[in-house]
Amino acid sequence: MKSKYFNILAVIAVLGLIIGCFGMADRLMYGHLHAGYGSYVPWGLWVVFYLFFVGLTAGAFLITIMTYVFGVTRLKNVGTLSAFTVLVALMCELIFVSLDLGHFGRIYRFLITPNFSSLMTWFVIFTNLMLIIYLLECFFLIREKLVLWSTENRSGKAFYRLLALGKTEYTASDRESDNRIVRLLSIISLPAGLLFYGTNGAFFAILQNRPIWNSAMTPLLFILAALLSGGALITFLIAVFHSDDEITRILGRAVFFILVVFLLMEFIQFFVGYKTGMTSILTSLDLIVTGPYAWTFWLVHLLIGSLIPLILFITGINNPKAIAWACLLIVVTFVSVRFNFLIPDLAVYKLEGLEQTFSHPRLRTHYTPSVNEWLVSVWIVSLGVLVFISGIRWLPILSSEKGGVNHV
Amino acid sequence: MARILPGEDLLIRMQRDLKRSLAADMSSIKWSMIIDQAKCAGCHACTIGCVSENKLPPGVVYRPVIEEEVGTYPNVRRRFLPRPCMHCQNPPCTKVCPVQATYQNQQGVVVVDYTRCIGCRYCLVACPYSARTSDFGEWYTTDTPDAEGKMVGRAKASESYEAIPATEYGKQWPKRGHGSPVGNARKCHFCLHRVAVGMLPACVTTCVGRATFFGNRNDSQSLISELLGSPRVHRLKEELGTKPSVYYLQ
Ligand code: SF4
Ligand code: SF4
Prior knowledge:
The structure holds two protein chains of two kinds.
Chain A: H1 3-30, H2 45-69, H3 76-100, H4 109-112, H5 119-151, H6 157-163, H7 172-205, H8 217-242, H9 245-276, H10 279-290, H11 294-315, H12 320-346, H13 371-394
Chain B: H1 10-23, E1 31-36, H2 45-53, E2 65-70, E3 77-82, H3 92-96, E4 102-104, E5 110-112, H4 122-126, E6 133-134, H5 154-162, E7 185-186, H6 192-195, H7 202-206, E8 212-216, H8 223-228, E9 233-234, E10 246-249
Parallel strand pairs in B: 1-10
Antiparallel strand pairs in B: 1-8, 2-3, 4-5, 6-7, 9-10
One iron/sulfur cluster binds next to helix 3 of chain B.
């Protein structure tokens, strides 16, 4: 990564951390007191971001599977970058979820009194499993270089020695065993990952009182959404950090295809929903297309996040720059897709007349994220960006042939 | 005829029923509630009685009364639907709780263990009746001015009322601050702390229309069992299969 870009991104991330600090301090001191959600819309922006980051892990997950399980050697160069991306996205996701809990200190309850009939328990199990898998995978992928760097005459030697757990020699048999471990971890991550994404969709789909979510299509749509946003992210990262035009083109085509299928599925969801004529479904769908946040659907998701990328793909399917731009637009606008998935089904009174009795801001279905929620989100996203670019800059994440490592 | 002549107050009968049930085998009890919509006057006394009994903070409500207007002028009628937790016999809320913090007790009452709840609010999302609210740590006295001269200011006002917790679930909770029940899911618990000592739930005793009935539906002599035989009985959202223990008389 070029120093100039690193510096710009680092400054932005540090600024984000500083600004976000105010939100974090407020969250830690006053809990959820200054959050905009309430009891009828119990989840808000932090859950939207959690869904967003779940999705971002998917593309990189696929690449690691293809590289290390199916042995697609063409992708080997980007394997470490993908594994590292999954790791950072999982980290952000976990911070968002943790801060959304009313009693974070009781997290140990998952170990003492877990309820295995709850999909949230499984979500926690699979998320942690993925985190451990990818932490180990990243370690074994970069161990060789860590050992090498810890013995070379370069700054930060002690740091690399620490990361290499004090190992000073790296033999051919070490390499072989590390490769075997990485492959094994990737094989384990395949079912773990599929269950992880499936659980995330099923988490919402099983709720029979939520007409839009309560559909067999939800887990499917979730996997597709994850592949789209995650695929777009990894394509963008590869285009920028690896400048590997061929892989960018291959992945670009895949993202283009997934985008088309995703939009088709979305259309089917709306078509079937409107055709059912059920008030509960219509109200939620109307909220998406004509509600106060309709602009996030029409402008952010459909125009900037779908139509423009589609045009870029069609006109420049062989042009890595066009592909990178299209992917970037898909990724950054995907928060609106998650927002429009989460909020509308919550923002409908489940008992008619409830809105007129016992009024209080926490007992309304109108939800606007509070400043504090945004500040906390800025803090976590900035932390994610900082960890990511620092990893790229100071860890052997990018392969050396592509000119990424000798900048320490 | 008998109904309009002065007789034994229904509360006395329910009180007797309650004592009889408590004296018998506890495991055979299934607490239930019946709300007679024809008698409900929409006065919200039960809502307020509950708020006061359980010291509910702003934004937390266990038993709102939903008002509905039917017909067009001049043929307009108003219908009222008090909505406590339904204490579903097949509750969707307990199944989703990841840490078993909410469950059905032996008497069929769906309770929340405040010391276990991690505040994920999954149960709020899963409840089809919106019967759960989360305690976000709000205070009524937030905007009360501080003491000046002889005026009772914010600190004193909050200390002498809001900060003192209710004895929900028969426990002595710490002074209101950051600890539970702040950050927890909260809901109607049929005033178990009162029932345990032979008192009817607060909403039953405060109901001016005598529209709310409470008792053990497994006790064939109880008023509640008698009323359950009425053809007017119905339950909310029956189609979901949640089997509420709260019944309505239309
Ligand atoms: S009404 Fe809601 S909170 Fe009460 S038991 Fe049923 S699902 Fe649970
Ligand atoms: S908010 Fe508490 S009671 Fe409700 S599901 Fe979460 S942990 Fe369980």
